Amino acid sequence: MIPLSIPHLSGNEWNYVKECLDTGWVSSAGAFVERFESEVAKYVESPYAIAAINGTGALHIALQLMDVQQGDYVIVPDLTFVASCNAIRYTGADPLLMDIDPETWQLDLDLLENFLQEQTIRNQDGTCRFRRDDRIIRAIMPVHVLGNMVDMHRLMALARKHGLAVVEDATEALGSTCQGQHAGTFGDMGCFSFNGNKIITTGGGGMIVTNDQKLAKRAKHLTTQAKVSTEEYIHDEIGYNYRLVNILAAIGVAQMEQLPSFVLHKQEMDAYYRRHLAGVGDIEFQQISSGISSNGWLFTVRTRRMRELLHFLNEQGVQSRPFWMPMHQLPMFASSPYIQTGNQADQVYQTALSIPSSTQLQETDWARVVETIRSFFN
Ligand SMILES: *Cc1c(COP(=O)(O)O)cnc(C)c1O
What we know:
It is a single chain. This protein starts with 12 loop residues before the first helix and ends with a helix. The longest helix is centred in the last third of the chain and has 32 residues, at 246-277. The strands form three sheets. Strands 1, 2, 3, 4, 5, 6, 7, 10, 11 and 16 form a ten-stranded mixed β-sheet that branches. It is built from eleven helices and 17 strands. By secondary structure, it is α/β, with parallel strands linked by helices. 49% of the residues are buried. Pyridoxal-5'-phosphate is lined by residues 54-56, 80-81, 83-84, 143, 169, 171-172, 193, 195, 206.
């Protein structure tokens, strides 16, 4: 089986984990957590990084710190992994689903701009309200789907104009940039994931980045049970046990050492697939806008024969998977508002298929994937 996207642990993971085991520093204290935080901060050029239990927990904390609360809305693309919307729900808010651009498969910024212009009003207190029900729209959560990005400068300008906070779901986009600036560092807060299928992994883990020292302190506080004293058990608010343990951070430090080479490898793979799959059947690629550099996390194509091709590839030992079912089709979010232009999210969902993108794969593997896809269309 040529794997879709699996962990690649060929660096210092074993040494650093051994160090944790030898010294007994396996749990919530230990030097690797801070080291991992500072490595990620340095890499994405953000002043602050706060480790978290996973990407979903990171999103939850970031939203809470943006003051997202019961009854609010958070604008989020309809085509995303369910965790984006689940994190919104954890705060008591509801997702305000927005359609995507059918070429880039990201939040449709023209639609967003039009929506904010036509369907919201700015209240006396500065809050942005959805005209339909007068509820507060507190934030936008752009999701950098597959490592691609929208023009984040444009998105930030729209958000600021309408008084909205921005939490970036950059869980798939570590290493992606917009005009040279890293995904996750445009918004008030950005979140990464180190789940097993992501570009680097700690088994499970996450990270919040921010430019704001106060928010960084608050994020650390909330992810570590809101303890106010190092000695005594005194807590000043409801906190969470969302810390990343040292033994996992140790894996993260080793993975960060390899991240630049992983990004290069994925980008080479991306170029290879685009070159060799161009013109095969009715295959179309995700469009990457100028100024964006994608980390090429998970190569995905569109074809009208997606279901057939999916089964064929999996039978042939080429691991493939469909996209996420759009959020408006899930029972939990079926009653959330969905702002759309011809339901592009569904059209992409019906046709998109991800193919093997693991960093272990070499050109011979890519060639086999391409040959198998060609044989399907012949
Ligand atoms: C992976 C992912 C998450 C959640 O990250 P976990 O670490 O698995 O909790 C959230 N949003 C998107 C778009 C993801 O791909």
